[in-house]
Design brief:
The complex is a heterodimer of chains A (about 800) and B (about 260).
Chain A (H helix, E strand, L loop, with lengths): L6 H9 L6 H8 L5 E5 L6 H13 L9 E4 L3 H17 L6 E4 L5 H9 L4 E4 L1 H8 L4 H4 L5 E4 L2 H4 L3 H16 L4 E6 L5 H8 L7 E4 L7 E4 L17 H10 L2 E5 L3 H13 L7 E4 L5 H12 L5 E4 L12 E7 L5 H8 L11 E5 L3 H15 L13 H14 L4 H8 L10 H13 L13 E4 L2 E4 L4 H7 L9 E6 L6 E6 H5 L6 E4 L2 E9 L2 E6 L19 H11 L9 H13 L8 E8 L2 E7 L4 H17 L4 E6 L4 E5 L12 H12 L3 H13 L21 H11 L4 H12 L4 H11 L3 E5 L8 H4 L5 E2 L3 H17 L8
Parallel strand pairs in A: 1-6, 1-7, 2-4, 2-5, 3-4, 5-6, 8-13, 9-11, 9-12, 10-11, 12-13, 16-20, 21-25
Antiparallel strand pairs in A: 14-15, 16-17, 18-19, 19-20, 21-22, 22-24, 23-24, 23-26
Chain B lengths: L34 H6 L13 E5 L2 E5 L5 E3 L4 E4 L6 H7 L9 H16 L3 E4 L15 H11 L3 E5 L13 E3 L1 E4 L2 E4 L7 E3 L4 E5 L2 E8 L3 E3 L10 E2 L5 H4 L5 E4 L5 E4 L3
Parallel strand pairs in B: 4-5, 5-6, 6-7, 9-10, 10-13, 11-14
Antiparallel strand pairs in B: 1-2, 2-3, 3-4, 8-9, 11-12, 12-13, 12-15, 15-16
Helix pairs in contact in B: 3-4
Classes of the chains: A alpha/beta (about 800), B alpha/beta (about 260).
InterPro entries (chain A): ATP-dep_Helicase, DEAD/DEAH_box_helicase_dom, DEXH_lig_assoc, Helicase_ATP-bd, Helicase_C-like, Lhr-like, Lhr-like_DEAD/DEAH_assoc, Lhr_WH_dom
Keywords (chain A): ATP-binding, DNA damage, DNA repair, DNA-binding, Helicase, Hydrolase, Isomerase, Nucleotide-binding
GO molecular function, one term (chain A): helicase activity
Chain lengths: ~800, ~260
């Protein structure tokens, strides 16, 4: 019987006193179903539950060939799972081969895996897509029975998940009997995740594990109150150190890499007891990260300062406290992070929140209330994006010629693309083949040609380019950082834009130490160690999440309470002062404040619509202000408000905020703004229009780098209906631009806008003045200032009198 | 006089593919030394035609760096334009990469047309890399070729050979490796003094804004690339930083030409 475990494995498990959890047994019982979704908290033996049916089917002496594919969003997870899985398999003496395959796997091993696949292959969505692009894909995957998708909730939130589902649809066509299992943390809408996962978007059975006891969660009391602005949380360093000393292993989560670096350094400076503490984030070199992971697994560390890289999967053993520095932004993610403190199944997880500034105190209070009310947030996911489909069409062409009808049937078998229209599919195919331009210029150089009813690559050599660019993760352009000297140790990466601002002698933080910039050699930043100097901060490209609608709404409601019980005194006083000087934002109304400050006219719009939407609001409003001669100079957006400054004061915000005119403005404005261009760049890379420039291959001069902005402008002028512009608009509307949230906010507000004119800065606006990430407006005001700057430079060079 | 070739180590510069510099030696005009610095600048008014340009005197000739990126020699009714790179999108398509928007040439032609209509030059000098590769010319779309022919009609048109397009051109006009007229000489990559050249695609960043720019000192004028799908090389980078003298100016293109001391 399928659901019976092989005897040696059963003996091994019982020998160690392990009994199956009910959800593990149920997964084993459902092994024959086409798709199953398991929702379980971290530490609930999720992964084993996913693999038990595989072990049962393979038995003690399996026949050769790939049986189960395991896909995880994290490379580190594949290695970890391989290790964890080998323990019972080897312990029970089963002859099951388990191997992982990621971007880090050596070429020799990868070649061997293609020729002779293991029974269980652990991989990532990108590596899977690459495998599927080979001509011999059908042979590699012949006989595949099961696929296990780990961290399905995380994958479903990104284009990587869409790509994975297209890959699974392809596998399903090769092996129609393929069964799927999704493993997920707690989510707000399990049915939507089931539709994402199962073939044809039809949904599947959902197995729920016991969520475990209520977590022990609270705000960390700190001796010093948080500052007005900033996201560092450094005021809490002594208190955090105290917590570390009192627990076995503490994970200290940050929202961005830069914050993690700064906090780590601050922690280390005050760590007089010499507690072993490590740092882990995505910008650190792999070697560095692996060292920390190994030390953590071996129990040699008491704490790790980390970012989202430790959000997922890996079981770090004896973690008994999670500290979240900075506002959680999203209740669901907070709950998942709390679950990392999982040292004992069925013991409550312990977590402490450290708001980094006063606004975040309010957000933390709202988040704690939401966790206790089991109120999770999340946005419904839209249909699968078409740029990912464009890439899939190119990948399909790499592996073998295909008929359009067959491929259409195949891709609509992927949950996210179940509703894909034939017209959209044809547009993507046309784009992949001809570029899809109104001007049919590439007939002779088409990428794909139709011959004998099958689409194929015109030039087989182009497969190499397509394979190199598989994936939906868009890197910001980064440079490697190394210690100077022969065989200098790699430390990590920094953004190219940041590197460009450095001059020799400047210092910045990397891997928790202060390093000195020495120079740039062959696209590598060379540094020396430079302890004891105050660093210039590295600007890392850590993702900035927007605070969820649920949390924003809870914050607005919280503002209305009379005395703010449960809110720390320092923050309650701040809110009281705001109530006295101006007013507090209210649900169903929109507060706008205008006042002069720092020689500029300032306007703050408290939309509480999340960072991305507030940023878009800033772009839209400054655009309209530009048109009306208000000479805006720039703006900065947080999750809660947008601050705009300019040369002229805004007399009345209401006409500027008219939803109808904002919507009209959106289309025209989508034109030239930086957010759209950034979105276009990622769409163009994913869809295979331009190649992702990679460090190392990048040339330093002009040849490599005409910017995607020029392509965007050209397309807009000459081919405004082009597919990639359409995708860019769709993508931006729900992603970075998030116009939907502005509309929802304005709809809620209707016309109840309170525009308050004041003599000076208000308590609530004060933190915004210190907010980094200011965006300049390249309008008339900027040209005026550019003129002034040019004039001054000439003047200083003694050439001023020559200016006409 | 230095006959040393400088700046040819630029990325992508295939020095070997260059025709040897022919013709007479260039007589360097203008006086040496610091006094020169004052002597070369003329005024900032430009021709007063269209977008405002930056006017200056170079080797005794009055020139205007136009906001569009072309150089205007009013007394000789000569318009000089840097790297056009026609056909770049097609070249990328040819080698099996992404199919870039095929509007690059008409984008470039539209801007060139605007300047030609306004200035009505008797002579147009294209400073090389006018075509992205030797075969680009053969791949021109009919409409684009016709537009270019219309611009060329009724004037002297000189194609200076570049490192991308050393071959002859069937479109009309004359192909030369370099050109000299009065005190000025024209070639693709700056070699000697008194030259007007292109090749490097210089750009400069001032007050947080990066723009393609002219680089001007007493010895040479380097034009920005005019083609639509061309990137730029920051003038703080070598070889530009080595090539230009300490007194060099960068003239930024854009809504109007703005001169600043070349950023270092």
């Amino acid at each position: 019987m399928q659901e019976t475990l092989p005897d040696p494995l059963r003996r091994w498990l019982s020998g160690r006193g392990w009994a199956l959890h009910p959800h593990q047994a149920e997964m084993l019982a459902r092994a024959g179903e086409a798709a199953t979704l398991l929702i379980a908290p971290t530490g609930g033996g999720k992964t084993l539950a996913g693999f038990l049916p595989t072990l049962a089917e393979l038995g003690a002496a399996p026949a050769p060939g790939l049986h189960t594919l395991y896909v995880s969003p994290l490379k580190a997870l594949t290695a970890d799972i391989a290790r964890n899985l080998r323990a019972p398999v080897e312990g029970a003496g089963l002859a099951i081969r388990i191997e992982d395959r990621t971007g880090d796997t050596s070429a020799a091993v990868r070649r061997r895996q293609r020729a002779d696949p293991p029974h269980i292959l652990l991989t990532t969505p990108e590596s899977l897509s690459l495998l599927l692009s080979y001509e011999d894909a059908p042979r590699i995957f012949a006989g595949l029975r099961r696929v296990v998708i780990d961290e399905a909730h995380a994958l479903a939130e990104s284009r990587r998940g869409d790509q994975l589902m297209l890959a699974l649809a392809r596998l399903q066509r090769m092996e129609p009997g393929l069964r799927r299992v999704g493993l997920s943390a707690t989510v707000e809408d399990p049915d939507a995740l089931a539709r994402f996962l199962a073939a044809g978007g039809q949904g599947c059975a959902i197995v729920r594990a016991d969520p475990g006891p209520e977590p022990d969660i609270a705000m960390l009391e700190t001796a010093t109150p948080p500052p007005w602005s900033g996201g560092g949380g450094r005021h809490a360093v002594p208190d955090v150190l105290h917590q570390i000393a009192q627990h076995r292993i503490t994970l200290i989560f940050h929202n961005t890499r830069a914050q993690a670096e700064l906090f780590f350094q601050a922690l280390w400076m005050e760590n007089t007891d010499g507690l072993p503490i490590g740092i882990h984030h995505g910008a650190l070199a792999r070697e560095q990260r692996q060292r920390v992971e190994a030390a953590l697994a071996a129990g040699q560390l008491r704490a790790v300062v980390c970012t989202g890289t430790l959000d997922l999967g890996i079981d770090w053993g004896d973690v008994d406290l999670v500290i979240q520095i900075g506002a959680p932004k999203n209740v669901k993610r907070l709950v998942q992070r709390i679950g990392r403190a999982n040292h004992r199944y069925n013991a409550p997880s312990k977590a402490r929140l450290v708001p980094a500034n006063r606004f975040e105190v309010v957000e933390c209070v709202a988040a704690l209330e939401a966790v206790r009310a089991r109120d999770l947030d999340g946005d419904p996911r839209g249909p699968g994006p078409l740029d990912v489909l464009c890439q899939q069409i190119l990948i399909a062409a790499c592996s073998a010629p295909f008929a359009a009808d067959d491929l259409y049937v195949e891709v609509t078998g992927a949950g996210p693309y179940a509703g894909l229209s034939r017209a959209d599919f044809d547009a993507c195919l046309d784009y992949a083949a001809t570029g899809g331009y109104a001007l049919r210029a590439y007939d002779r150089w088409q990428r794909l040609m139709l011959r004998d009813g099958l689409w194929r690559l015109r030039d087989p050599r182009s497969a190499a380019v397509i394979r190199q660019n598989i994936g939906t993760i868009i890197d910001t352009e980064t440079l490697k950082v190394r210690l100077r000297g022969r065989g200098g140790v790699p430390l990590g990466e920094i953004e190219e834009g940041f590197a460009a601002t450095l001059t020799p002698g400047d210092t910045f933080l990397m891997g928790g130490e202060v390093v000195r910039y020495e120079g740039l050699r062959e696209l590598t930043v060379e540094v020396t160690r430079n302890p004891g100097r105050a660093p210039k901060v590295a600007v890392f490209n850590g993702t900035k999440f927007a605070t969820s609608t649920l949390l924003c709404d809870r914050m607005l409601a919280l503002f209305q309470r009379p005395g703010w019980p449960g809110v720390p005194v320092h923050t309650a006083r701040w809110l009281a002062l705001q109530r006295e000087r101006s007013r507090l934002p209210e649900p169903g109304r929109l507060l706008v404040e205008s006042f002069p400050w720092d020689g500029r006219a300032q306007t703050v719009i408290y939309g509480f619509a999340g960072r991305n939407a507030q940023q878009t609001l800033g772009l839209l409003l400054t655009n309209r202000m530009e048109a009306e001669g208000l000479n805006p100079l720039g703006f900065v957006a947080t999750d809660y408000a947008t601050l705009i400054w300019g040369l002229e004061p805004v007399p009345d915000i209401c006409p500027l905020l008219d939803p109808q005119r904002l919507r009209e403005g959106l289309e025209g404005w989508l034109a030239g703004n930086a957010v759209m261009k950034r979105t276009f760049r990622s769409v163009a890379i994913v869809a295979g229009l331009i190649e992702q420039s990679r460090a190392g291959q990048r040339k330093s001069g002009r040849q490599a780098t005409f910017s995607s902005d020029i392509l965007y402008d050209t397309l807009r002028r000459h081919d405004p209906d082009h597919l990639l512009l359409r995708i860019t608009r769709d993508e931006a509307a729900r992603g970075l631009v998030d116009f939907g949230r502005i509309e929802a906010m304005l709809e809620r507000v209707e016309r109840r806008i309170d525009h308050v004119h004041l003599e000076m800065l208000t308590p609530l606006a004060a933190p915004l003045m210190l907010e980094p990430g200011r965006i300049p407006i390249h309008g008339a005001a900027r040209e005026i200032l550019l003129d002034r700057a040019a004039g001054q430079l000439m003047q200083r060079a003694g050439l001023g009198q020559l200016e006409g | 006089m230095s006959g040393q070739v400088r700046g040819c180590s630029a990325p992508g510069a295939r020095v070997g593919a260059h025709p040897p510099a022919g013709g007479s030696r260039i007589r360097v005009q203008g006086c040496a030394g610091l006094a020169r610095r004052r002597a070369i600048w003329w005024d900032a008014e430009g021709s007063g035609l269209g977008m405002s340009g930056y006017g200056f005197t170079f080797h005794g000739e009055r020139l205007e760096a136009r906001a569009s990126g072309v150089l205007w020699w009013a007394t000789e009714r000569t318009l000089i334009v840097g790297d056009l790179h026609f056909g770049k999108a097609q070249r990328m398509a040819l080698r099996g990469g992404g199919l870039l928007p095929p509007y690059e040439m008409r984008e470039t032609l539209a801007r060139l047309d605007a300047e030609i209509s306004l200035l009505d030059p008797a002579v147009v000098i294209a400073l090389g890399d006018s075509f992205d590769d030797p075969e680009a010319e053969a791949r021109l779309l009919e409409a684009d070729a016709a537009w270019l022919a219309r611009l060329m009609a009724g004037r002297v048109w000189l194609w200076i050979a570049g490192n991308h397009d050393p071959g002859p051109v069937a479109l009309g006009g004359s192909l030369v490796s370099r050109w000299q007229h009065r005190a000025l000489s024209f070639r693709h990559i700056a070699q000697e003094r008194g030259e007007i050249s292109g090749h490097f695609h210089p750009k400069a960043r001032v007050a947080g804004v990066a723009r393609p720019c002219f680089l001007v000192d007493a010895d040479r004028v380097i034009l920005p690339a005019f083609g639509a799908f061309t990137g730029g090389l920051d003038c703080r980078q070598p070889p530009l930083s080595d090539l230009m003298g300490a007194d060099a100016l960068a003239v930024l293109t854009g809504t109007r030409a703005r001169a600043v001391p070349m950023p270092r």
